[in-house]
Design goal:
The chain is an all-alpha fold. The chain has 2 domains: about 1-50, Arc Repressor Mutant, subunit A, CATH 1.10.10.60; about 55-185, Tetracycline Repressor, domain 2. It is built from 9 helices and no strands. The protein has helices at about 5-25, 35-40, 45-50, 55-80, 80-100, 105-110, 115-135, 145-160, 165-185. Helix 5 (about 80-100) packs antiparallel against helix 7. The protein is elongated.
C-alpha cells in the first residue's frame, strides 16, 4: 500500500481481507465478491474501491501465505540434512495448504498474474528444486521424481475434504507421510 488510508478506510480494508481469507479458506476461490462484502460488513462498492478485481483481492489475501511457503522451503534448505529438510518442508507445506482450501489454487493454478503470484510461484519452485536436488544427492530421494511431481502432490493435498478443519489437517498429515514415503528410495 503506497498511500496512507484514513483509519476507517484502513479498517474496511482489513475487514475485507479477513473476510476474503476466511471465505476462500472455507469455500475456495469461487466465493462471489458480494459475499465477501457482506461478510466484511461493507458494500460491494467499498470492496471494489480497495480491490478493483478479484485477482487483486486474491493476491493481497494470499500474500502472507506465499511468504510462508517461501519461509518453509528456505527452512528446509537451511537444514544440514537435505533429506530431513525436504521432509519437513513437505510436511509443513501440506499443513499450511490444508488450513486453506484456496491456498494451493492461488499459488499454483488460479490468478497467475495477480501481484506477481507467477513470479512468487516460480521462485518457490526454484527453491524447492534446489532442495530436492540436495535431497537426491544424499541418496535417500528417488531420482525419477521431479518438482512437478511434488507440485502435483501439493495440489492433491489441497483437494482434501473433511468434516472439520481438524480432520482435514489430520488427513493432510497422513497424506504428507505417504508422499514422503513415495519420494524415498
Amino acid at each position: 500500500m503506497s498511500q496512507s488510508l484514513r483509519s476507517d478506510a484502513a479498517d474496511n480494508r482489513a475487514r475485507i481481507l479477513d473476510a476474503a481469507r476466511a471465505l476462500f479458506a472455507a469455500d475456495g476461490l469461487d466465493v462471489p465478491m458480494r459475499e465477501i462484502a457482506r461478510r466484511a460488513g461493507v458494500g460491494p462498492a467499498t470492496v471494489y474501491r480497495r480491490f478493483p478485481t478479484k485477482q487483486v483481492l486474491v493476491a493481497e489475501a494470499f500474500r502472507p501465505q506465499v511468504y510462508a511457503c517461501h519461509a518453509i522451503i528456505e527452512d528446509g534448505l537451511a537444514d544440514p540434512d537435505p533429506w530431513h529438510g525436504l521432509c519437513l518442508a513437505v510436511e509443513n507445506l501440506f499443513a499450511l495448504h490444508a488450513r486453506s482450501r484456496a491456498a494451493t489454487a492461488a499459488l499454483f493454478a488460479a490468478f497467475p498474474r495477480a501481484f506477481d503470484l507467477a513470479a512468487a510461484r516460480e521462485q518457490a519452485i526454484g527453491l524447492l528444486t534446489v532442495l530436492m536436488g540436495r535431497a537426491m544427492e544424499t541418496g535417500r530421494m528417488r531420482r525419477d521424481v521431479g518438482v512437478n511431481d511434488v507440485v502435483l502432490l501439493l495440489m492433491a493435498n489441497g483437494g482434501l475434504h473433511a468434516a472439520s478443519d481438524r480432520a482435514r489437517l489430520s488427513a493432510s498429515r497422513r497424506f504428507a507421510e505417504l508422499a514422503i514415503h513415495a519420494l524415498r528410495v
